[in-house]
Amino acid sequence: MKEFLFLTMLILFCSAAFGQSAPNPGKYFAITVVDDETGRGVPLVELKTTNHISHYTDSNGIVAFYEPGLMNTDVHFLVKSHGYEYPKDGFGYAGLTLKTVEGGSAEIRIKRINIAERLYRITGQGIYTDSVLLGRKVPTTNPVIDGLVVGQDSVLDAVYKGKIYWFWGDTGKPGYPLGNFQTTGATSGIPGKGGLDPAVGVDLTYFTVADGFTKQMAPIPGPGPTWLGGLVVLPDETGRERMFAHYAKVDQAMKTLEAGIVRYNDEQDIFDKVQQMPLDAPILPGGHPFRVMDGGVDYIYFTPLTRVRADIKHLIDVTSYEAFTCMKPGSTKEKADLDRAENGKVRFDWKPNAPALFTQDEARLIKDGKMKPEDALFHIQDCETGKPVAYHGASVEWNPYRGRWVMILSEIMGTSLLGEDWYLEADTPLGPWVYARKIVTHDNYSFYNPRHHPQFDKENGRIIFFEATYTSWLTTSAPTPRYDYNQMMYKLDLSSPKLALPVAVYDVSKYGVPDKFATVSGVPTRAHDLPIAFFAPDMPGIGLARVLQTGGRLVVEPRNGPELDSKPVFYALPADTEKPPATTIGLYEYIRDSDKKHAYTTDAAWTMKGFHRSEKQICYVWMNPMTVSLPLNRYAPGP
């Protein structure tokens, strides 16, 4: 007994003694890195000393610095972060020297290059580690680890029975290199209904098992991980909400072994297998679904080009799926058989049993001589340079603020392999998806599977929130401690002049003379298949001038002149713009001598009897690269 008491006291003494070796909050030097535009703390900023000790700001933008031998002295920190920059000195070093006084603090302001603003990390260990060490306020219940999760891949979410349900793929844990590969889940409150403001954070409650680690939410029998996609909520025959998803069982090479539909079991909080689907089906669900009304029929869209009727019967029937495609039913991407009209032009329509074609597919057909560039449906390109942007995946939602469908697109093979995200707008879910602006960039790092959360939208959609998976996978970079293989949230303000993207401007003229134009908000209600005259922004932007239609003429307001009372038809670059973007083209004015009637076109060789052309363009607009006409006023946001 005495020996036991002695050992117990010795253990307690040693524990207390060794515990005192860790610095208390008053000994840390607090460094806060803030966005110089918003003043908000910036996560994921690396501060590296001259002897290569790296610290990364937490989700409050804070580093709690304590390094024996480097306290109470001058320490130089290199400052680096994806999509942000810090000024370089005369020797090319982007950093600063700080006196690291115990209990002291410093603030570093960095310039944001990204249009989107990085807000916080949603998953993983140590989201607010430095803030907790310093005794700072944090917004979430479990700020340093939750559900024993250290990493999570690819998010899905849906509002279900008054909560937001979240699901992820492969999930890491601290106890072993292999974690949960059968889907992880959590819930959170809806903002304004018990949930946090999305500008502040997401407070997750994980589904866990006895040891505190995450529960297997999709334990589908068979070898390999279970990955989910296409999460959707639909009513059953009694009107009860039910939640479904597409599942895939994959092998180590990520080859799909089995696929189908699962349904959420509310009693057991797991997904049950409902229907297996053939792997060679031309259309399968997946991605981030959104709802669209077409002719009074409610559809689930899995991509802009694939859909199924929004009911359980059709969802589980793979033969009910349709693609908006120019392929004939029964054809495949490997054996492309294009549907053509009598004049030889490719014909797009909603078709069953035929695959959708995305940017890489159309590029292959063009290269093989089976399709002309102007016949393609996708022409996604950088609005400044015209560089093609290869579609890897996207999240599409209706946006009431812009009155358009908006897309957050993940690019493959951009300036990084899989770390570039772009913003686009279109008048229909089908497009025209043409001009894009990069909103997030990474230096040799991946940031894939973006998800726009419409339930988080603010101010009628002026402010939107999206996240994606931040990981070193498919790169040569070393994993970022704590952050790697986790989800990062961003905010995007759609009123930013940097997002004044060129959108379709339609020719709504009569009698064959191009003299009247409108963006989608000004198109007559019953108008369909209108020709696109050109593209131009419909909101103020950097260097843009208002273009008004008065008395049958287009009037370009002077760059610094007073604004007229009329609402502009569109915005354009003034005619005297130096070095206009490669994607722009001059808009010319034509005048008929007999009655002074005006006409406008980007075709400098356009002719019509009695008209003569102005010597120079009146402004610059953006080129229309496509000939496919899309059915305007046919599609509306779903319920």
How would you sum up this structure, described in words?
- With 639 residues, the chain is mostly beta strands.
- The protein has four helices and 46 strands.
- Among the domains are: 21-114, Sandwich (Immunoglobulin-like); 377-501, no CATH class; 506-637, no CATH class.
- The strands form eleven sheets. Strands 39, 40, 41, 42, 43, 44 and 45 form a seven-stranded antiparallel sheet that branches. The chain has a six-stranded antiparallel sheet with strand order 27-26-25-24-23-46, with no helix packed on it.
Write down how many β-strands occur, each being a DSSP E stretch of 2 or more residues.
Answer: 46
N/C terminus separation: 72 Å
Strand content: 35-45%
Contiguous uncertain segments of 5+ residues: 1-23
In terms of structural class, how would the helical and strand content be classed? mainly beta
Q: Kindly state the mean pLDDT as a whole number?
A: 93
Q: Figure out the total of helices.
A: 4
Helix content: under 10%
